[in-house]
Amino acid sequence: MKHLDNLSIKELLCLIQTGNTGAFGEVYKLYRRKVYCFAYRFVRSAEEANELTQDVFVRLWENRMKINPDKNFEAYLFSMVRSNFLDALKRQARMSVYRTANAQEPSFNSTESYMDFTECRQIAMNAIETLSPQVKVAYLLSREDGCSHEDISRQMGLSKNTVNNHIKKSLTHIRTRMRYLSPDTVLPFILLMLASFPEMC
Q: Which bin fits 115, alpha (ψ -120 to 50), beta or left (φ > 0)?
């Protein structure tokens, strides 16, 4: 069997569709810089390009079953950047007052900002502590106790759809806390999410 770094992009994408995180890591290494540079052309900010890069790769994994390995993958990635950028513009319009009041944000430094998997997990756990009680309980039952969404639904007396929403809310909350990390931390972050939310894989 070929080593991952010897596989074609089509072969890697087919593996990603089966949930292969190794193949995802290889695709991330191949395309992260291109996505980051393309994102930077839109936002002209290292910090925002980093956030946009995070979102693209997280959404790529979340929507991996929609990938068509026979089509131009680079064009697909770049269309995701454009789409995410437009979404970001809408968010920025709603947050304009907040951004004006908080104009002084930390500058990007890829060396100082580097965090490994353990540090990513600590940030995630700190973020979880600030969730509402019910969302926090759902997260802990899923992450710490390994309960399925169906089990959590029974234990908490909630519908499975509500449990799904709670877990997605915790994921979004954690992603928000990760927004200032360097592009090199995207992969550890995604792998952390896979470990935290197995039913979303």
A: beta
**What single-letter amino acid sits at 81?**
V
SS3 assignment, position 114: coil
CA distance 84 to 53: 9
The mean per-residue pLDDT over the stretch 7-20 comes to 93
- SS3 category, 59: helix
**Contact criterion met (CB below 8 Å) for 84 and 56:** yes
- Any idea what DSSP says for residue 179? T
- Which residues, 6 or more positions from 130, have their beta carbon under 8 angstroms from its beta carbon? 173
* Residue range 104-158, pLDDT digits in tens: 444 444 433 334 455 666 666 777 788 888 888 887 787 666 778 888 888 888 8
Q: Tell me the two tokens of residue 92.
A: 């920025």
Length of the chain: 201
State whether residue 182 is helix, strand or coil. Answer: coil
